[in-house]
Each structure stands twice: as structure tokens, then as C-alpha cells.
């Protein structure tokens, strides 16, 4: 069975500071990893994904994530946080077998303080 | 493309009534997913379809819930009879077939059962 853990319910960061939202995963095969963002009263929006290749993945709005196979982690990062980045962030995983089901984490609320 | 379209955006109904939620996926996407989001349980996958065929309905909470996809451009999620504990935001998402693809979420239907 595949699973995702987002250990922090909420992350607070000052505007302009770097931010990190943590994610660890468990999957039987090769992992396909995703980050999504949800703004209030909206559906989830895709930010970035890791399928294969470079461990550092760049995505929308200046976000990036680093795949670490040995630590089974896929942390989301941004060098300089904006107030507009405040939202709910979800990590998701599926294995590479072709089975379509994706497992989402419980979400981390990011609060960027002006 | 207009993205994933869901209707209605808001639904308020009384316990015992039938509720039908509708979804139009992005044209060309072969996979369709129904999710439910609540504060208590987070984001739950209810069912997903591939090429209009239900592949995994293990997340459907009970027999009161049913989903159909009569063609590639339309899906419904029905709750009959509805109960107050069904109150949640229901999301539809679509994606091309294949594990490497991200999902595109609709705006959601906020269901309130009184």
C-alpha cells in the first residue's frame, strides 16, 4: 500500500524568508510524486511533479521540490515566501505500475506573515 | 479549455433527499476521479473511472453513494438518501491516462445536508 505523511499541520514563515513544507512517502515501486496547492474555496491546483531524472524539480510560482530516495522525502521549497503563497499544500504519491490511484497527504497550511 | 466543470457549486438539501452532483472532465482526458473533502477526514478518493469504466470504488462510503460515467464527457455522483454526515465539498478531477500525469480539479460542489 502507498502512503504519504505531511508531519506539520501548519507552517508559519515571515514574508521574504525561505519556506519548506515537508513530505515523506511510502510506495512499493518507483514513486511518482506531486505537490498541489489549494486556495480557499477552490479546487486543488497542480504545482510540480517528480517522475524521473533530476532530483530537484522546479514548478509553478517559484516553487521547487527535492526528491530524496534514501530518506523517502519530497519536501516543497521556495527561496523567498510571499503573502500570496498562504494556502493549503498537499503532497501526493502513486507508484509507477500504471495503477492510477493517487494517495494524498493530509495537507499543510502555510501561513506567510507580512 | 474551460477546465473541469462541476455543477451545482452549492447544494443545500434536507436529510433523506436525493442529491446528484455533476462533472464534465477536460476534453481528451481518459481518467476521472471523485473526491470528498472534510475538515475531519481530509481529502478522500471515492471512485475513479478510466475510459468510462469504474476501476476502483473502494472509497465509496456506503450503498447510498453511486457514480456513473455514461460517456467521456459526463459523470454523476448520486447520494440517495442523503444524511447530514454527507455534508462536505465534493471534487471531480480528470487526467490523461497514465501514472505520470497530474490531475486537474474542478471548483467543487459544497453540499450541506440539514
Largest interface: chains, residues each: A-B, 24 and 23 residues
Q: Give the helix proportion of chain B (percent range).
A: under 10%
Major beta-sheet overview of chain A: 6 strands, mixed
Tell me, rounded to a whole number, the average pLDDT of chain A. 93
**Topology pattern of chain A, helix = H, strand = E:** EEEEEEEEEEEE
Report the biggest beta sheet of chain B as strand number plus sense, adding barrel if it closes. Answer: 7 strands, mixed
* Poorly predicted parts of chain B: none
Q: Give the helix/strand class of chain B.
A: mainly beta
Number of strand elements of chain B = 11
SSE run of chain B? EEEEEEEEEEE
Radius of gyration of chain A, CA atoms, in whole angstroms: 14 Å
Distance between the termini of chain A: 41 Å
Account of the 3D structure:
The complex is a heterodimer of chains A (114) and B (114). With 114 residues, chain A is an all-beta fold. Helix content of chain A is 0%, strand content 53%. Chain A has no helices and 12 strands. Chain A has strands at residues 3-5, 10-14, 19-21, 24-26, 31-38, 44-50, 56-58, 64-68, 73-78, 87-95, 103-104, 108-113. In chain A, strands 2, 5, 6, 10, 11 and 12 form a 6-stranded mixed sheet that branches. Chain A is globular, with a radius of gyration of 14 Å. Chain B has 114 residues and is mainly beta. Chain B has no helices and 11 strands. In chain B, strands 2, 4, 5, 6, 9, 10 and 11 form a 7-stranded mixed sheet that branches. A 4-stranded antiparallel sheet of chain B has the order 1-3-8-7, with no helix packed on it. In chain B, a hairpin with a 3-residue loop joins β4 (31-38) and β5 (42-50). Chain A binds chain B through residues 32, 34, 36, 41-46, 49, 51, 90, 94-102, 104, 106-107, and chain B through 4, 31, 42-43, 45, 48, 50, 55-56, 91, 93, 95, 97-100, 102-108.
